[in-house]
Amino acid sequence: RKWREMQHAYSSILQAVVSNKYIHLLMKRDLLSTMRLEYELWCPLCDAFAPIPFVKTKFEASKMPGNVSAFPYPAGKDHYQMCRSSKEEMQQTMLGFVPQVDNVGEIARGGKKGRDFFLDLSSAMNEMYTNEYAVSEKVWRRREQVRAAIEQVMSNSREFPPGTKVAVFGSSANGFGSPNSDLDLCLSIPASAADFTNDGKGVEAMTNLASKFTAAGMRDVNTERLTARIPIVKFNVPYNDNGTEILVECDLSLQNPLALLNTSLLRTYATISPMSCVLASIIKRWAKSRDINNPSKHTLSSYGYVLMLTYFLKNARRGDGNPILPNLQWVDPQWAQNPTNPYREIAAKPKSPQTLVAHPTLENYVVNSYFYRQGLEGLQKYCAYNNGPSTIGVLLASFFHYFAYTFDYKKHVVSLGNKLVEKEVKAEEDGWSVYKSGLAIEDPFELFYDIAHVVKANNFLHIKKEFALAYSKIANEAQSKRDIITGKELIDMICEPVSQDEGRD
Fold it and tell me: Directed axis angle between helix 457-478 and helix 111-128, to 10°?
C-alpha cells in the first residue's frame, strides 16, 4: 500500500511538471525530458508505472522512479513510442485490454463513418429503452392499484394516525426504473403525529400491520427487517392481469420522507429530460451486466450511477456554452421559466418553513428540500435542444470517458451542488476520510452522507477499469477499418456479462 501511495505521489509530481507550460523556465531540459518520458509510463487504471524500456535488467526496469541516467537525451519520437509500448504491454497484462483515450468529440467528427456510427448507436439506445425500459400506462395503473390496496389495508387496521398515506418512492416512481422494478413504498405519517415513529410505536404498528397483510391475501410476508434503522416489511401482492396472476414484489418502510424527496427530484429531472432516462437505462444495464451494481458486494447502487450521470450532464456543455442539464436545486426560477442565454443560478437556496425539513432520525439536522419543480415547460424545451439524432450515443461515450479519465477522484466529490466540492472540505465539515482516493458521492439532501461509502478500494479500481473498457469498446469500433457493427451489437458488446474467470484486480 505504501509503495502504491509513493507511486501515486510521484505520478502527481510528474503530471504537475508536464502540464505546466512555464516549467521550461525552471528546470533543465535534460531533467524535463526525463520526467516527460517517465510520465508516459504511468497508467492510472493499472495504478502503476510500466517497466522502464531503457535498462537491461527486469529489476532495474521495475524500479520507479528509476535510474534517471538510463533515460535518453535528447528524447525523440522513438523513445516516447518505446514508453507507450511498455505501458500498453503492462495494460494488456494487468487489465486485459489497452485503454483507448482519444476524445469522443474527435471520433464523432471523424467523417461520415463517425457520424453514422453514433447515429446508429443512438437509434439502438432509443429503441431498447422503448422496448424494455419505458413504463407503460398499464404498468403505472397496476402500481397505483397495488399502492391503493396496501393503503386500504393500512387504513382498516387502525394502527396508524389518521391521515397516514402510502407513497411510492425509488425507481418505481422516479422515472429511471423499468416495468420490472420492485415497488418501494413508505408510510407517510402526518406532521401532527411526528412522535408516532418514536418510542417503538411505529415498529409495533408495522408488526401488527404485517399480520393484516397475510389476512388480506398478500403473500410471503417477511418481517425480518423490522428492527432496522428504517423498519421494513417485505411481501408480494397478487395482481390479476387479464386472467394472469402477477406477483408484485413490495417493500414497505416507515416514514421515509427523504427517500420521497430524492424520488421527486429525480422524477423532475426525468420529466424535463427524457434523454437522461434513456442514458440511465443503458448505464444501469451495463453496470448490472459487469457486476458493479451491488452495494452488498461493495459496489455502487443504481441510485449512485444515476447521480453520477446527473452530475456529468449538469457539467457537460452544449454548443452555446450552457449546461446540457440545468441544476434543479440551483437554477434561477426566472431563467427556468424562459431559458435564454446565458444560463443562470441563484446565489443561495430559499430558506423557509416550507423548504426546511427536520431530519427524520438525526436531531438538530435540518434538510433544505428546495428544488425547482413547477412550470417545467421551459426547461423541457431547453433540454430538447440537445436531443439531436446522434446526441445520446455521443453522451454515453462521453460519460464513460469522463469517469474513466477526466474526473479527479482523489480531490473531488460527485455532488449536485452549485460548485466543485473537494474531499478536504467534506473531511472538515462532515468527517469524510481525506485519505480515501476512490469514488465519493454526496447525497443531494443529506449532504453529510456518502452514497459510495460502501465501495471498497479494490472495487473502485475495478469500476474505473470498467468505465475505461466500455469507452474503449466504443472508440475502437468507431475507428475500426472493418465494417461498422450495428448499434444493438455495440450495446450487447458493452453490456457483455462478466465471465466467472475474469476476476477482480
Answer: 120
The answer for residues whose C-beta is within 8 angstroms of residue 121's C-beta and 6 or more apart is 390, 392, 393, 396, 474, 487, 490, 491
- Cα–Cα distance measured from residue 483 to residue 476, given in angstroms and rounded to the nearest whole number: 12
Please answer whether residues 340 and 381 qualify as being in contact, where contact means their C-beta atoms are separated by less than 8 angstroms: no
Which residues does residue 241 pair with via DSSP β-bridges, in sequence order? Answer: 244
Nearest alpha-carbon partner for 474 in 62, 117, 217, 127: 117
Contacts of 300 (CB under 8 A, 6+ apart): 287, 292, 293, 439, 451, 452, 454, 455, 463
Backbone angles phi, psi at 66, to 5 degrees: -100, -155
Q: How far is CA 320 from CA 272, 314, 323, 449, in A?
A: 19, 14, 9, 35
Cβ–Cβ < 8 Å for 326, 336: yes
Q: How far is CA 244 from the centre of its chain?
A: 37
Closest CA to 222 of 137, 230, 213: 213
Amino acid at 154: M
pLDDT, tens digit (0-9, with 9 covering 90-100), for 41-52 = 999 888 889 988
Q: Which tens digit of pLDDT belongs to each residue from 202-251?
A: 889 999 999 999 999 999 999 999 887 778 999 999 999 888 999 999 99
pLDDT above 60 (res 312): yes
3-class secondary-structure state, position 462:
helix
Rounded (5°) CA angle 119-120-121: 90
Mark out the alpha helices in 23-98 (DSSP H runs). Answer: 29-40, 58-62, 77-94
CA atoms within 13 A on the CB side of 326: 34
Pairwise CA distance, residues 421 & 428, whole Å: 12
For 268-291, how does the pLDDT look when each residue is reduced to its tens digit (9 = 90+)?
Answer: 999 999 999 999 999 999 999 999
Is the bond into 74 cis (omega within 30 degrees of 0)? yes
By DSSP bridging, strand 42-43 and strand 48-49 are: antiparallel
The angle at the Cα of 182, spanning 178 to 188, to the nearest 5 degrees, equals 115
pLDDT at 503: 53
Q: Sort 387 into a burial class: Cβ within 10 Å, 0-12 / 13-18 / 19+.
A: middle
3-state SS assignment for residue 265: helix
Selection from 418, 419, 271, 260 nearest residue 331 by Cα: 418
Nearest to residue 326, comparing CAs of 287, 258, 380, 369?
380
* Omega before 497 within 30 of 0, i.e. cis: no
Q: What's the number of CA atoms in the CB half-sphere (13 Å) around residue 169? A: 23
Selection from 206, 184, 186 nearest residue 251 by Cα: 184
Residue 505 pLDDT more than 50?
no
Whether residue 64 has pLDDT greater than 70: no
Q: What angle do CA 266, 178, 299 make, to 5 degrees?
A: 70
